[in-house]
Structures are given as C-alpha cells and as structure tokens.
Amino acid sequence: MTLLSVSGLAKSFGGLRAVDGVDLAISRGSVHSIIGPNGAGKTCLINMLSGVYRPDAGSIKLDGRELAGEPAHGFAAAGIARTFQNLQVFFNMTALENVMTGRHLHERCSLAAALLRTRALARAEAASRKAARELLRAVGLAGWEDTPADAMPYGALKRLEIARALAAEPRVLLLDEPAAGLNATEAREIDELIQRVAAAGTTIVLVEHNMALVMEVSDHVFVLDHGRKLAEGAPGDVARDPRVVEAYLGAEGGAAAQQQEAEHA
Ligand SMILES: Nc1ncnc2c1ncn2[C@@H]1O[C@H](COP(=O)(O)OP(=O)(O)OP(=O)(O)O)[C@@H](O)[C@H]1O
C-alpha cells in the first residue's frame, strides 16, 4: 500500500529543470531507491520531499495528506526525517546529545516546566536520554555516547546522523548518500542498518551511488536522468535495462549488479 505518493513534482533553477514532472508511489515499509548520474536531480528531489525546497508544481502526499508547500518543520511533524549528503551533526556536542536533539518533536514540556526545572521535565529528559542510548546501540555506536562528535571517525558520524534522524520516530526516512566516503566494510554496515530499519517498519527513500548497496537493499529502484524518470522497477530489472546501463551504470556497473543479483538468486 502506498504511503508516500508524489505526482508531477517539478523544480527549476533559472532555466534549468532540475526535477521535471516526477511521479513516485512509495510503499509502506519498503526501501525505495533513487539513482541517477551526477546532476540528475536526486538531492533536489529529496529536498522537496523534506520541505527544504518548495516545489514549483506537483503534489507530495503522505498517507493522503498534502504536504507540498509546507515548510520543513511541517514535513518533520508529519513524519518525514532525513539525513544529508554533507554531514549535519553538531560537532560541539557528544554523540548522545546529537541524538537527543532529534527527539525534540516527541518532547512535551511547557515553558513553565522548563523554567522551573520540574520533575516532569527531569522525567522527560531521562526518557529522552534512554531512547537516545538505545538508538546509538541500534546503529552500532554503543560505547560512543559521551564522545564529542568532533572526535568521531567519519563512518561513525554517518551512523550518528541516521540515529539522530531515527530519534524523530519518522514514518519515512530519507537517506541522501549514506555510504558516500565509506570503505567496503562500513558500507556493508550501513547496508545491514538500512535493512534492520526497514524491517522495523520505517519506509526508506535512499539516494545512493554505491550500486552494490542499492541492489542489495532496495525493493524498488527509480532512475532519474536530467530531472525525469528514465526507468523504474525491481533492482534486477533496472540493472538489466539497456537505457540505464548506458546512462548511468556503465557496462562495468551493470555487470556487477547482475553478478550481485545472480549471487542472491
Ligand atoms: N539551489 C540550487 N540552485 C541552483 N541550481 C541548483 C540548486 N540545487 C540544485 N541545482 C542544480 O540542479 C541540478 C540537479 O542537482 P542535484 O544536486 O539535485 O543533482 P544530484 O542528482 O543530487 O547530483 P549528485 O549525484 O552529484 O549529488 C544540478 O544541475 C544542480 O546544479
């Protein structure tokens, strides 16, 4: 059943049509990947799906509710969280504090309670701390709680960003190149993490250049080229599509994807 439904989505910058009439039907609990060459419009699309960019045209419905035109906090409140291609962690905070910032949507605390530092506030903070610890463990960062973010290696920061986004308890998690800059072992860890998050019921929209990762985790792959749909379907079908091989994967990438598929057959 479709959870996130997009139709006719478009965004231009000057004369450039970065996203040009995109339709998406993203099923509840699925991993829906968006791939395409550099400059295809993937990040622009994610920016519209998270309210960072306002679309020029089109509709973005989450469970039937129209979100297009709402600000980013409206998308967040509706249940769409995201990570960024360039890390957006707070480097002057610890890992735990970073994750706690992601929980603010779920914290109910009046200004009076905050000023008076009531017991209710203390309870809310303790609950938030506990949930953040559990999330750090879930993304493989147990033991890093009190480490300042600026002392963490890049691979750990990528997972920290995912933990912070998950702290908002989103219905849809948008991941913009979660494996960028990671080595093969770290990329496999992200692969397993994505599969665990999806298995727990969070719908995932993944933008990623690492084709091995995309082929492994995706239920559905959408190929964007020059802002438009080039192809979409099951990972194996997309990897075999000659238009995709030519525009994006290249002969080498197509062969790798097909080998991957054969190994999992
Ligand atoms: N804020 C902006 N102002 C002007 N042009 C933009 C803006 N954002 C994106 N673009 C342009 O829109 C096009 C699509 O960019 P986008 O970053 O979405 O591509 P992409 O598919 O994510 O590429 P990559 O894989 O390299 O990250 C590019 O030509 C880019 O220069």
UniProtKB/TrEMBL annotation:
UniProt keyword annotations, A-Z: ATP-binding, Cell membrane, Membrane, Nucleotide-binding, Transport
GO CC annotation, single: plasma membrane
CDD domains (UniProt xref): ABC_Mj1267_LivG_branched
Annotated InterPro entries: AAA+_ATPase, ABC_AA/LPS_Transport, ABC_transporter-like_ATP-bd, BCA_ABC_TP_C, P-loop_NTPase
Entry coiled-coil feature ranges: none
Domain of life of the source: Bacteria
Alphabetical list of Pfam families matching this protein: ABC_tran, BCA_ABC_TP_C
GO molecular function: ATP binding; ATP hydrolysis activity
Domain ABC transporter: 4-251
Protein name in the entry: Leucine/isoleucine/valine transporter ATP-binding subunit
